Here is the input.
Amino acid sequence: MSSPELRPSDLGVAAASRFAAALGERLGTVLRGKPEPVRHALVTLLAGGNLLVDDVPGVGKTLLAKAIARAVGGTFRRIQGTPDLLPSELTGVSVFHLAGNEWEFRPGPLFANVVLVDELNRATPRTQSALLEAMEEHQVTVDGVSRPLPVPFFLVATQNPFETAGTFPLVEGQLDRFMIVTEIGPPDPLTERSLLLGEGGEPALAELPALVEPTALLAARGATQRVHCSTALADYVVAVANATRSHAEVVIGASPRAALALLHAAQASAVLDDRDYVVPDDVARLAPAVLAHRLVLRDPVRLRETRTLVDGLVGTVPIPRP
Here is the structure.
């Protein structure tokens, strides 16, 4: 498969769309039969957000994250969430050298272009909080000194359902920093048979080359930010966010950051469909994946049920007409 021609100076939507299509095709050879999670990953990547994959063990969460890292190129680090993982093991530490009589900073695994935090909710809340600054500001502060993370920076986290033993539920502030939360689910019988016969999965991952250099991802993100969103579409996003805030079962609705994330995700969706403008369907299609995990309900329910609630709320908002 040939790599699309995409240069840092090329900020056109057409070039970004070619990049995304080629990347999606490669991801599809690894995570077979799962177009929706792959699309969610591409939307998050193009929009410059962070991705959380929430599902039971063994369905390909880590596989998807590794495939993204390999295809995008650049540096990659993997962090395994454990109850004894310390914040400094993520951000890095300062070490004093007696010979030189000076402190030297040794960066942690967050200093990479693509970072996979596997089973994030097995880490304690204290360690989870060490990711907040990195996810929002793309920097870490150690010993009072703020250090920028590599550009581009993309964090993918996986988590097991909160009912799983030995897990710590992510707090609202942590969840709000993930642009999209997606699920994978079990494959259909034919896809699962092909996996058993060695098609896709780990064998395909082992042969997956880098598609482009990280600078090409920056170009694609630049094109995504230039996708046009009309005032009517912006009002539509605000109306959807307000619908979550006024529902009787919702204690905490979508924040302004959530509304901005929905807009950026819609722009990325337009790029995937080779458009330079956002349409209402971009917003409606992504609203459950962008907003559901951010809502706090009076009666806690599973994420899937919250998505159904958001999908219903979107249906009550009038669609803007051109």
Notes: The chain has two domains: 1-203+211-226, 228-317. Residues 196 and 303 are 30 Å apart (CA to CA). The first strand starts at residue 51 and ends at 54.
